[in-house]
Amino acid sequence: MTPAQEAQCNPVEIRGVLYRSQSAACRALGIHPSTLQRALEEGRLDTVGLWGRAGKPKRTVLPDGRSFESRAAAAKSLGICITSLDRRIRQMEEELNEHWKKAEEAGLVMFKSCRSHMRLK
Predict the structure, then answer these.
(1) What percent of the chain has pLDDT over 70?
(2) Measured between alpha carbons, how far is residue 103 from residues 34, 107, 112 in Å?
(3) How far apart are CA 57 and CA 73, in angstroms?
(4) What's the chain's Rg over C-alpha atoms?
(5) How far, in Å, CA of 38 to CA of 44, rounded?
(6) Which helix (H) or strand (E) holds 13?
(7) What is the tens place of the pLDDT at every residue in 51-108?
(8) What is the model's pLDDT at position 8?
(9) Checking phi first, is residue 79 left (phi over 0); if not, alpha (psi -120 to 50) or beta?
(10) Is 56 in contact with 65 (CB distance < 8 Å)?
(11) What 8-state DSSP symbol labels residue 18?
């Protein structure tokens, strides 16, 4: 790249990685330039390129932090079939939802208790 071309580049930092141009970032993340432009305008560079179509994750990330290109790759790494992986993920989501429900209920009880002591309606 010539110095003149380099001067025209718009460097961009996404999740701690500095790309020498927006085009380079788009190629590395596998996104369209308009997707990056929209993320820049909306101030959400921290999530650009993580989600695919219809709001589904582009990558499968396991609870231990390992990231895979696909559910099939994650299942293979664990030595299980995709159906088992999906079942385990669903099970974890259901357990997490139950924890949230209990926390919400406890918070509501605490709020009602405090409200009566503070004479709030």
Answers:
(1) 78
(2) 40, 6, 14
(3) 14
(4) 22
(5) 9
(6) strand 12-14
(7) 766 566 666 667 677 777 777 888 888 899 989 988 988 898 888 888 888 888 888 7
(8) 64
(9) left
(10) no
(11) E
Which residue do the tokens 């582009």 mark? 58
Reported residue count of the chain is 121
For 22, the token pair is 């927006």
Helix (H, G, I), strand (E, B) or coil at 2: coil
What is the per-residue pLDDT for 89? Answer: 84
d(CA 42, CA 15): 15
As to burial, measured by CB atoms within 10 angstroms (0-12 exposed, 13-18 middle, 19+ buried), residue 121 is exposed
Token representation of residue 114: 């405090």
The pLDDT of residue 16? 87
